[in-house]
Amino acid sequence: MFEFFSIGLMALGGYLLGSISGSLVLGRFRGVDIRALGSGNAGGTNALRTVGWKFALGVVLIDVGKGVLAAAVLPLILASSGSAEWLLFGSVAGFAAVIGHIWPVYFRFKGGKGAGTAVGVVLGLAPWCILPLLTVWLVTIIGTGYVGLATILAGLSLVPAMWLLGPEPLPAALGTLAIALAVILIFTHRENLARMRTGTENRFEKARLIKRR
Q1: Angle in degrees, CA 54, 195, 148, rounded to 5
Q2: DSSP type of residue 31
Q3: pLDDT at 210
Q4: DSSP state string for 134-179
Q5: Do 130 and 122 form a contact (C-beta atoms < 8 A)?
Q6: What distance in Å separates the CA atoms of residue 77 and residue 2, rounded to the nearest whole number?
């Protein structure tokens, strides 16, 4: 009974923490609503394109930071670092933070796509996955210019990276988290995939180094 209560507490705490959207909080100080600009997404990429790199950097730091706090710090209330319970509670709280970022209770359930917060969660619980994820993301950006595609492929790469580079045997909580994060990132970027199919998806041309002649 106590463990079910603890999991529920972690889920609630992670969700409320995740609902603190970096772009929307900073936007209030700047007098802008990022959801009314560009693609309408309350995330770092849209912030960079519409408001500038300094604003986008602040957004990324907040969104990644809350993922780390939810996954690695919040569970310390109930479990010691590195324990099986800590991993379980961190996985629950971390995934809930990603859900909170996507559907934030403080901002009428309209937030971002969860990528930055997911990175923070992985950084807090499975830092060995960060380099493979970053490599896949950068290679895709350089090759295609599609940020959405890069994020989807990086999310998918989390699954093999977790199993191949993680501890043996891999804790079930981490394996489940990897799959859940990959699925939610595909879901939140489904419109990007649809636009790529129709040829209407915007490219980040400044980052696209490999271009067709």
Answers
A1: 40
A2: T
A3: 57
A4: HHHHHHHHHHH--HHHHHHHHHHHHHHHHHHHS-SSPPHHHHHHHH
A5: yes
A6: 14
Give the three-state DSSP class for 114. Answer: coil
pTM of the full predicted structure? 0.89
76's enclosing H/E stretch is none
Task: Specify whether the CB–CB gap between 94 and 71 falls below 8 A.
Answer: yes
> What distance in Å separates the CA atoms of residue 128 and residue 147, rounded to the nearest whole number?
23
Return all residues near 131 (Cβ < 8 A) that are at least 6 apart. none
**Successive 10-residue mean pLDDT values, the chain, 213 residues:** 82 96 78 72 72 81 95 92 91 97 90 93 96 95 90 96 93 96 96 91 67 52
**Phi, psi (deg, nearest 5) at residue 204:** -90, 80
CA distance 45 to 68: 20
HSE (CB half, 13 Å, CA atoms) of 97?
A: 38
Structure confidence at residue 34 (pLDDT): 75
